[in-house]
Specification:
Helices cover about 45% and strands about 20% of the residues. It has about 280 residues and is of the alpha+beta class. Strands 1-2-4-9-6-7 form a 6-stranded mixed beta sheet, with no helix packed on it. The protein has a 5-stranded antiparallel beta sheet with strand order 3-10-5-8-11. The radius of gyration is 19 Å and the shape is globular.
């Protein structure tokens, strides 16, 4: 693990090894019981997690805020979000961990799933996800032919069901984002490569930086600058994984005049340099 600004960064739910499989799926108890059912605040630089409780409960600490957990609660935790857990002893459920690169393969921007999955969320009443989580857990535990393909397909199913559940809650009036926040999301998506300062983003939206900050923190628990940086970093991972562009050209595409500045920023977020990240993705 590494330390960034006092927050521990884990590669895998408390482990120090890189994710060696297509996904990782385990019960909540499997790791929590080793730590007296408590996991201190941490973040995963390159991993997205989905937790589903089937029984028991506890508290999720999400970006410094507590969220109650109970049976049929689902936790969506994108890469980079600071989180921790205090589970009630005996809590049952599953933890699915996916590399960010797999999400890039599965999700299609035009379909809207990423808009629902890119923010840390805790939602109740997600018992309909239990079958999909049981299926991917069973496949993960087995060693049948075509296992990797099945895991990719089942991971896509879980992500779709999580996004559907979160979207359904929003339509029902639970956690509906402020219209200004939706405008901010669209602006970041259109202009993330410009690396706009927060003051300029606020001017483009015709609001004060302070007002924009309040709306953004209410919606995500994060500052505007973190959302801009996260989108830029996600694009950096995509370009390093799926193109042959030199690191210098990746930096220029993302609005960095100095490639060394890009390398430092990427290393700070990912825990490895851009070249080391690419080498790891290309390794057999």
């Amino acid at each position: 693990m590494t330390q960034q600004a006092g927050i521990t960064s884990y590669n895998l739910f408390g482990e120090t090894a890189d994710l060696a499989d297509v996904v990782h799926c385990e019960t909540i108890a499997a790791r929590s019981i080793l730590h007296d059912w408590q996991l201190s605040p941490h973040r995963h630089a390159r991993l997205h997690q989905v937790l589903l409780l089937s029984s028991g409960g506890g508290v999720a600490l999400v970006e410094g805020r507590e969220r109650a957990l109970g049976p049929e609660a689902v936790v969506n935790m994108p890469a980079g979000a600071v989180h921790g857990f205090r589970f009630d002893p005996g809590t049952e459920g599953w933890v699915l961990t996916l590399p960010s690169e797999l999400l890039d393969q599965i999700l299609r921007p035009a379909e809207g799933l990423w808009a629902e999955l890119k923010h840390p969320r805790v939602a109740q009443g997600a018992g309909g996800l239990a079958g999909a989580m049981q299926d991917i857990f069973a496949e993960y535990q087995g060693r049948s032919f075509a296992r990797a393909q099945m895991l990719r397909m089942l991971a896509g199913q879980v992500l779709a069901l999580v996004a559907r559940h979160l979207s359904g809650q929003a339509r029902a009036g639970q956690g509906v984002a402020h219209p200004l926040f939706r405008r901010l999301e669209a602006l970041i998506e259109a202009r993330f490569a410009e690396r706009l300062p927060v003051a300029e983003v606020a001017r483009a939206l015709a609001v004060s930086p302070q007002h924009l900050s309040r709306i953004t923190r209410d919606a995500t628990g994060q500052p505007v600058s973190a959302l801009i940086a996260a989108r830029s970093h996600r694009e950096a991972r995509r370009l390093l994984t799926y193109t042959n562009l030199p690191v210098q050209q990746v930096a220029f595409r993302l609005g960095y005049a100095d490639p060394a500045h890009f390398s430092r920023a990427f290393t700070r977020e990912a825990g490895v340099s851009p070249r080391a990240f690419r080498a790891a993705m290309e390794a057999p």
